[in-house]
């Protein structure tokens, strides 16, 4: 991945050294019982694992779509993840994705488009000026966060591909390698992870092709190196670690819908009036808050996206 | 050897040690809280932690009877009430995390939730079933109810534990390994009892004369 910014810690400390600093310290000769005891205590007291520091990204502007609500901490957003390829516990991805290989990386844009293209990560980073967008992010499980994502509208890359007349939907596929993701086998869901949007949803300027957050490239557990962020839909629609973007004629299959279609619809717009069959969607817990807060229709992005669903029964098209 | 083990089990400090052990999960939770180590979603962490320990203590309580027989250690019975009460203690904490941060003590909202969400309904039922068991766990209540009736009442723990397992199973999105593990352990513990009941030689039933 290209380093676009000024000098960071990453330029001073050899990467292997700080990524593995725990192992390095361990190897430095704290031997015997002291190590065992200290390790036990430190794991008790500091169970958080290291986050691979990303490379700094050149952010050209802050998008007017940004919310002014207080952001969640980088620590929260990197240690509370649903990324079932790396385990189903929220803390698993931070631990299990440390060695995830995201370079080299290719994203293939294909299907019903005039210009089929394979992009490297460098191409993607240079395709358009990077914007910072502070979005609310609402999970179907009933929690939410506010994150300063970095990227540009997915529409940018789709317009370059020029969808044909036949293209009505866009389908996305995540990288999947059972060798690097042995935890995936017990996730219960079918992989590779696939998601989909209607073409007009994909072209909506709010739909973000995301390459970073908090000023840096995406940490592995947050969907490195490139993911979607669709702030008015439940989090699982915002597919991580994308390798394929394909324009198609018909509504494509999506992972959670295939797993339980009565629980997770194709649209999955955030909607406090349409409950998940097993739990209410009327409220959510913003991470960092004690009591639950009211969930907003379209996660508060109705002004930008409500018109996409004019005349549609949102209870039926959940 | 066995005599020594019996002496240990019967000693007063053995109960005290077990009491301390049962408090370890709570101490761990407080310790983690004190160090700001309850993950990015502390409420959920405490909810899952106390729920987990409720189920575990229920299963441990239900293991006492089979272990007494299988290990020929009838004295283990001394600890059953305490284990059961710890299960009740953890379920109370668990319920409180629902009533306070989730429902903000809004009882009307809670009832609506309990009525509408099967996974809440079944969890709530499991909790409610434990309340009379905790209240009647004293010697006085055993006497008042009489052994047979008391025992019949306390079989409600079977249903309560089953409710707990279902509650957990319905909560999970797709990785069902843990709830299934709890379910499997519960099945073994209940099937053991069923087996014992079926194999027990029944007292010959006297042919009752027609009235």
Describe the protein's architecture and organization:
The complex is a heterodimer of chains A (318) and B (211). Chain A has helices spanning 9-12, 15-19, 21-27, 32-45, 74-78, 92-96, 121-126, 154-161, 199-203, 255-259, 302-305; strands at 61-62, 106-111, 117-120, 131-138, 143-153, 169-174, 194-198, 208-213, 216-217, 227-229, 242-248, 283-286, 293-294. Chain A is of the alpha+beta class and 318 residues long. Chain A has a single domain, classed as Oxidoreductase, molybdopterin-binding domain (Sulfite Oxidase, Chain A, domain 2). In chain A, strands 1, 4, 5, 8, 9, 10, 12 and 13 form an eight-stranded mixed beta sheet that branches. Chain A has a five-stranded mixed beta sheet with strand order 3-2-11-6-7. The relative contact order of chain A is 0.15. Residues 1-19 and 24-51 of chain A have low confidence and may be disordered. With 211 residues, chain B is mainly α. Chain B has one domain (2-192). Chain B is 79% helix and 0% strand. Chain B has helices at residues 2-10, 12-34, 42-70, 80-102, 107-116, 118-135, 139-145, 147-154, 156-171, 177-199. Chain B is globular and about 55 Å long. The termini of chain B are far apart.
Topology:
The complex is a heterodimer of chains A (318) and B (211).
Chain A: H1 9-12, H2 15-19, H3 21-27, H4 32-45, E1 61-62, H5 74-78, H6 92-96, E2 106-111, E3 117-120, H7 121-126, E4 131-138, E5 143-153, H8 154-161, E6 169-174, E7 194-198, H9 199-203, E8 208-213, E9 216-217, E10 227-229, E11 242-248, H10 255-259, E12 283-286, E13 293-294, H11 302-305
Parallel strand pairs in A: 1-4, 2-11, 5-12
Antiparallel strand pairs in A: 2-3, 4-5, 5-8, 6-7, 6-11, 8-9, 8-10, 12-13
Chain B: H1 2-10, H2 12-34, H3 42-70, H4 80-102, H5 107-116, H6 118-135, H7 139-145, H8 147-154, H9 156-171, H10 177-199
């Amino acid at each position: 991945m290209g380093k676009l910014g000024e000098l960071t810690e990453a330029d001073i400390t050899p990467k292997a050294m700080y990524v593995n600093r725990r192992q390095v310290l361990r190897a430095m000769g704290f031997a015997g019982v002291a190590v065992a005891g200290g390790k036990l205590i430190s794991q008790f007291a500091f169970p958080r694992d290291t986050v691979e520091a990303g490379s700094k990204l050149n952010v050209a502007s802050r998008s007017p779509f940004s919310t002014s609500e207080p952001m969640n901490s980088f620590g929260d957003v990197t240690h509370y993840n649903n990324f079932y390829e790396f385990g189903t516990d929220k803390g698993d991805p931070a631990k299990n994705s440390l060695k995830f290989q995201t370079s080299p990386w290719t994203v293939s844009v294909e299907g019903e488009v005039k210009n089929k293209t394979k992009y490297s990560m460098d191409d993607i980073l240079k395709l358009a000026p990077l914007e910072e967008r502070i979005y609310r992010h609402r999970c179907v499980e009933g929690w939410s966060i506010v994150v300063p994502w970095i990227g540009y509208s997915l529409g940018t890359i789709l317009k370059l591909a020029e969808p044909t007349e036949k293209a009505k939907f866009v389908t996305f596929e995540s990288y999947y390698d059972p060798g690097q993701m042995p935890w995936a086998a017990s996730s219960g869901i079918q992989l590779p992870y696939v998601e989909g949007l209607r073409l007009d949803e994909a072209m909506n300027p709010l739909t973000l092709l995301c390459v970073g957050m908090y000023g840096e490239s995406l940490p592995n557990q947050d969907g490195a190196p490139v993911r979607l962020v669709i702030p008015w839909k439940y989090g699982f629609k915002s597919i991580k670690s994308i390798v394929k973007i394909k324009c198609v004629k018909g509504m494509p299959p999506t992972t959670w819908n295939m797993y339980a279609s009565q629980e997770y619809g194709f649209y999955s717009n955030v909607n406090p009036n349409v409950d998940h069959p097993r739990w209410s969607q009327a409220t959510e817990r913003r991470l960092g808050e004690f009591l639950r807060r009211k969930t907003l229709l379209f996660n508060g992005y109705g002004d930008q996206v409500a018109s996409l669903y004019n005349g549609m029964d949102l209870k039926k098209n959940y | 050897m066995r005599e020594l083990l019996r002496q240990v089990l019967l000693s007063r400090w053995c109960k005290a040690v077990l009491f301390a052990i049962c408090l370890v999960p709570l101490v761990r939770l407080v310790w983690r809280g004190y160090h700001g180590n309850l993950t990015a979603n502390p409420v959920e962490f405490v909810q899952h932690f106390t729920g987990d320990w409720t189920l575990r203590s229920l299963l441990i309580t239900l293991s006492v009877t089979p272990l007494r027989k299988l290990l020929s250690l009838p004295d283990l019975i001394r600890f059953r009430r305490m284990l059961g009460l710890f299960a009740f203690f953890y379920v109370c904490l668990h319920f409180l995390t629902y009533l306070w941060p989730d429902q903000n003590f809004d009882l009307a909202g809670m009832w609506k939730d309990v009525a509408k969400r099967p996974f809440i309904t079944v969890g709530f039922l499991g909790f409610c079933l434990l309340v009379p068991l905790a209240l009647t766990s004293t010697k006085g209540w055993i006497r008042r109810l009489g052994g047979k009736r008391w025992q019949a009442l306390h079989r409600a723990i079977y249903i309560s534990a089953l409710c707990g397992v279902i509650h957990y199973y319905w909560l999970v999105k797709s990785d069902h390994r843990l709830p299934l593990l709890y379910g499997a352990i519960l099945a073994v513990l209940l099937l053991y009892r069923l087996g014992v009941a079926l194999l027990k030689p029944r007292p010959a039933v006297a042919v009752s004369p027609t009235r």
